[in-house]
Amino acid sequence: MRPEAPFGRRAAAMITPFTADGALDTEGTARLAVHLVDRGGCDALVLNATTGESQTTTDAEKDTVVRAVVEAVGDRATVIAGVGTSDTRHTVALARAARSAGAHALLVVTPYYSRPTQEAIVHHLATVADATELPVMLYDIPARTGAGTELTADSLRRLAEHPRIRAVKDCAYDLHKSALVMSGTELAYYSGCDELNLPLFALGATGYVSTVANVAGRQVRAVLDAVDAGDLAAATRLHHHLLPLIDAVMMEVPGTVAVKALFEAAGLPGGPVRGPLLPAGAELTGRLVDGLKGALAPVS
């Protein structure tokens, strides 16, 4: 039995489209949201997070992104706003702004850089959850937030007692911890690393927050559908079929760079990345396009 899916099951970690001169592309943001829901098979969109270049967008831009997406697809998909920062007061302010902009839920990453203790991390996350009535998905990604910032199983068990903390976006690369928390709490787990989607589904994860779903949403969904149907062999075959694309998008450069390169090749809204990220070169773009063509081809 999988836990209730409080935020949908098939979420894309959506990029933030920019214009050619690097400004926020509001119209492109709305158009991309519609594309991901209507053609990508997504029932949720995560905005203003890692793939959305949250570290280089302003608070006002984040607000505009949420409003544009809610207006475009808010009645057909769960809109989850990333609000995490290393500053508790700033994170609370972003959470309240996201609520005012119409977001349905919040994604809150563990605080980074200042290396808080587990007690401080739990206090930070609970404080943000207390700040609005919106449900919260925790974001556990120590590879980006830094050593010592991973949520321990004990901390996750404590946070699971909060009435508004409902889920975890899991990028911790610790399947044992994930299984312990899934088996001992009612937290819904969402795979946040496409390469681990299938293993986490097998352990009981509810769904995914996928970078690859920006470009191959229906193919990512097909793996979950096969698991739901009880056909592990088919799920494994579909996951293996996606691995070359996952490897190209996730392993060589930040996923944002890869997705924006593919969107440019396909004529979809994306635009440039913001520094310090650099755009993909011609050779990498060629490999990405080949990987996408392979993923979209029928599974033999």
Instruction: State the helicity in percent bands.
Output: 40-55%
Beta-strand content estimate: 5-15%
Coarse shape = globular
Number of helices: 12
CATH class: Alpha Beta
Average pLDDT confidence is: 96
Secondary-structure content class: alpha/beta
CATH topology: TIM Barrel
Biggest sheet layout:
8 strands, parallel, barrel
Number of domains: 1
Going across the biggest sheet, name each strand in turn: 1-2-3-4-5-6-7-8
Name the helix and strand elements from N-terminus to C-terminus, one letter apiece.
EHEHEHEHEHHEHEHEHHHH
The assigned CATH architecture is Alpha-Beta Barrel
- Name of the CATH superfamily: Aldolase class I
What gyration radius follows from the Cα positions, in whole Å? Answer: 18 Å
Count of β-strands: 8
Given as residue ranges, the uncertain stretches (5+ residues, pLDDT < 50) are none
- Termini separation: 30 Å
